[in-house]
Structure formats: structure tokens, C-alpha cells
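Handout for the seminar on molecular recognition.
Each group receives one record of this type.
Step one: identify the two inputs.
Step two: read the structure output and locate the region that could contact zinc ion.
Step three: write two sentences on what you found, then compare them with the reference statements printed after the record.
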Amino acid sequence: MRSGSRSILIRNGLVVTSSDECLADVHIVGEKIQAIGSNLNPAVDQVLDASGCYVIPGGIDAHTHMELPFMGTASSDTFESGTIAGLHGGTTTIIDFAIQTQGDSLHHALSRWHEKAAGNAACDYAFHLAVTDFRDNFRTEIQDLVEKQGVTSFKTFMAYKGALMVDDRQILDLMREAKKYGALVTSHAENGDLVAQTVQQFLDEGMKAPEYHPKSRPPICEAEATGRILDLAYSGNHPLYIVHMTCEDALNRVRLATLRNQKVFVETCVQYLLLDESRYLEEDFGGAKYVMSPPLRTLRDQEALWKGIDQGLIQVVATDHCPFCMDQKRMGTDDFSKIPNGAPGIENRVELLYSEGVEKGRISLQQWVDLIATQPSKIFGLFPRKGTISVGSDADLVIFDPRVEHTISAQTHHMNCDYNLYEGWQVRGKCRTTLMRGRVAVDQGQFLLEKGYGKYLSRTGKRSGGIHVANH
Ligand SMILES: [Zn+2]
């Protein structure tokens, strides 16, 4: 080994970014990309041959919930197990949600999430802060969170009445306060009052199986809340990011907003692109695996989301990774409303989006990279340190072999969950090697990092890529 920083040369890969592709070598020194070019020949400690493979930026999953206390239990992946699973599947950064307990301070939520992640996360991580109780005494915390703690995005739940849900007054106050410091407000858009009422109706009529979960929160719940939050953001010219959009009705509210030149960021998740509501009919309580909110929708909605991606209305594909094992799901055996909401997905996102998106001609290689890495880095203040391949960027890279076919299974995945939503799914293309800040984190299925390699990413409120909030 040479003295100084460790160095790696990735040879002969097709380097793919959100805008380009070229056959090139990538030279890494320490944690950073040192050079990209043809026939590079520096003295290095290690050479990785990427012939026939794509070299892409490490994935950024902008929506995860590791060890989240929720609905009387906690999601089953820790920061350690969940991020190791992510690295196996080509994700090198997560943005997890620190969630305020109503009545408690925002800073306390952040410190609790730091405690869970520090020394445990294998990949790098940042936090959104979910504001569930926004009163004057918590308002004063926003500036410090943005300017000193590196938390530049906040989340509001328009659903989960009585636990997480905030009203319009709180959303408006938060938007106003966040904007002062360049921060972004994100939203779970479902009408919580409407959901609560419909759920109760089903339960009252004895309809308590998992298949009534999607029926109890139909697209109108999501479309109404989407339209409302778009209007609230428009009223004050606030930037807005809508998480996990699932359906055409909600997407059409975004289309309408574009008619008045409103700029909004939209995220969907892999499961909404690939799975539909028929899954809730799986026997032996199997439908419970898919209980998440918003729920899986119809094939028509899937098609609308793919088209929304192609039209540029949807910028990000995340996972909402929030796994619960079957024994946890069984808390709702007699009542679908008690089934913990959430499912695993972090490990399969990058490969599934390639296999179902690029291989099937729905998106280009560049769109794939944009959706899984570049857009989330730009929107959430991590670009160009993360989300692209350029000189000086962190060496978070995936050597992706498009020739390898494999089958997804809970038997072989690394997520701490006893099922996989895509069990038996045939996938084309595999993350062969994942590099995390200049270190080989996973190679051919072997995890190689020491415990707690991941670092906290302090973000800035600066969004990149020519993105501005329209004046009106
Ligand atoms: Zn979520």
C-alpha cells in the first residue's frame, strides 16, 4: 500500500450520469473522485474492472424510516441493517425522517434520531424533520435547525389524525418560517379527517380485512390533500415537495398547478409504479404486507405515474422503506386499521427501476440516474457532493452489471423483514460493487465496511439545477 490516502481505479465502465454517458475510467483518492478520463493510468492500491458495466452515482433514497416507533411497534430495520441492505442494492445515502412527538421540541426529535444513527449507519444519512405540532415555542427552532443543524427540509402529515396530523394553520406557519431560511416543506398528502371517517364506516360495517385498507383511503383523499397543499404553497409562493404520490387524480392536481406556473417537486415510490391493489387479496392475511399509506392503486394509476415521470412532473423515485415483520402486521388480524403501515424496499429500488424502467423502455439510462440519485441530491441540498459523478464529488459509486439476471426473495435479501413485496420477481441488472466514500462497501454480495462507517450529512438550503420558485 502506498502512503497517504487509499486510491482506486475503476476501469472501462460506461460512466452514466443524469446528462451523459461515456466510456471512461474513474480515479478515486481517499473519499473523493480525483479524475475521470480515458486510459487513466495512475499508481493505485486497487483496480476494479467495470467492463460491460455501468458506473453510476450511488443511489439516494430520500424517504426512509429506520427503527421508527409507529402504531404501537417499531419498523424492523435499524439504521445498521437498513443501510447495509441499501448498500447491497446500490443506495449510498438515505434521508430519514426524525419525527417530533406532539408537545415535544423539534431539537429533541433530531437528537433522538442522531442517537439511533450515529455509529450504526453503514451509508451516509441526512434527516428531514417531521413537524407534528407547530406552535410558537417550536417556531423559533427552525432557524437553528436549518442554519446550524443542517436540517433543511421539513415534513407535514396531512393524515394520521390524532398522532402526526397537522392542520392548515400549522402548515402555513411552517411554510412561512421555513422559507425565511431557504428550507423546503414536504408533505404526506392525504385528507386525514376523510380517511378517519371512511375507516370507521368500514369497521362499523364489519369489513375489517386488509382488502378494506385501500378502499378506506381512496384516491380522492390523496387528490384533495394534494390540491389543498398546492394551494397553500401557491398562496405564499412557497416551495413544496409532495412525498409518495400514488395516483392519477393527485397527479392531475399537479398538472393543474403547472397551468399557473407553479413549481412543485413530486416523489413517487417503486411500489406504486410496480404493484397494484389486487395484492390486498393475497390469502392468509398476505394482503397485510402491502398495507401502507397511501395504498397501492390501479394499473391505470401506475401508467399515469410512469407518464408523469416522463413528462417531468415526478422528479424522484424513493421507497418509503418502513418494514414490519409478519408478526407485527398481525397486530391488525381483526382490524385492518391496526396493521402497522409500511413495507420494506430500500434494497430493491435501484435494480427494479432499471429492470422495469430502462430495460422495458419506459425511461432512459439518464432518467434512471436522475430519479434515483441526481434529483434527490439537487432538491435536498446534497449536490454536487452526492448524486453525480464529477471531480471532487464523494466517491459513492455503483458498478452495475446489466447482464446479470436474478430473482428477488426474502430468503436472500438483507432487509430485516420476513417477506419481500417483489418475491419471485425476475430482475435484469445487478449492483455488483458499491463504493461508499472511496471504500468498497459491497462486492459480489459481500459486505466489507466496518460498523458505523456512515456519516451524518449536514445540508444547506441551496437547491441546485436551475430550480427556482416562480414569482407571481
Ligand atoms: Zn413515509
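Reference statements: The first helix runs from residue 79 to 88. Residues 465-472 have pLDDT under 50 and may be disordered.
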